[in-house]
Amino acid sequence: MPMPDPLPSIPTAPTTVPIEIICFNCGKRPDELFEYSPESTGSNLSAVDYVIAEEGTLNRANGHFCCTGCYIRLGQPTAPAPGWTAP
Ligand SMILES: [Zn+2]
Question: 65 - beta bridge partners?
Fold first, then answer.
């Protein structure tokens, strides 16, 4: 009795779309900004992971955050809880 053909594998959509973590204003990535480096934060997280874990301005829908320099240049925007996030 011949072996049945294996069923074709059904492609599955990725459950999360990779997004680029980037300062919405200056376009820099966390690893380009010293303030998020492990040397600066004292954390064992990478710069990107640190922003994901700790950066309050991170917009989790699009990956945009606001680095400290831009945040100050923008006049330190605030918003009611849960707080201001980058557009
Ligand atoms: Zn910036």
Answer: 23
